[in-house]
Design brief:
5 strands, 5 helices, single chain, 5-stranded parallel beta sheet, alpha/beta, about 40% helix, globular
Length: about 140
């Protein structure tokens, strides 16, 4: 089942590629710079999944994730982070505590992200336990 997906990321190349791949699967994709994510999702309560890049410099993602989950309890947030295993793990844990459905450590492939989004939209993927990261290197 396709859904509405919000991508909150400052990397325009990633946004273009993710939009293309997710749209091919039938998802409606909204792209917002990290500082616009909350207002963009507020326009459409049908949004099923939000991808939050914790490396984007323009936002306090834990606060934004908590706000999004309060406004849209059924929203599934996929938090992504890089910057070394320990740093990424700490930020992903913080995002999980704020309400993210799961964390995805960089690097990851766009096809891996697509699979996660598809599973979340269908309701096939359960959220991870506290501190568990979907993938890390």
């Amino acid at each position: 089942m396709a859904g509405v997906v919000l991508i909150g990321d400052a990397d325009s190349w990633f946004c273009r590629m993710a939009r293309h791949i997710l749209a091919e699967e039938g998802h409606a994709v909204l792209v917002a710079g990290s500082d616009q994510a909350h207002s963009a999702i507020g326009l459409d309560g049908r949004t099923a999944v939000a991808i939050a890049d914790l490396d984007s410099p323009d936002d306090d993602w834990p606060k934004t994730i908590a706000s999004l989950r309060t406004a849209f309890p059924s929203l599934r947030v996929v938090a992504t982070a890089g910057g070394g295993a320990e740093d990424a793990r700490a930020r992903l844990d913080e995002a999980w505590e704020a309400g993210a459905a799961l964390g995805l450590a960089k690097p990851y492939s766009l096809l891996e992200l697509e699979g996660i989004v598809v599973e979340l939209c269908r309701g096939d993927r359960e959220t991870k336990e506290a501190g568990e990261v979907c993938r890390s290197h």
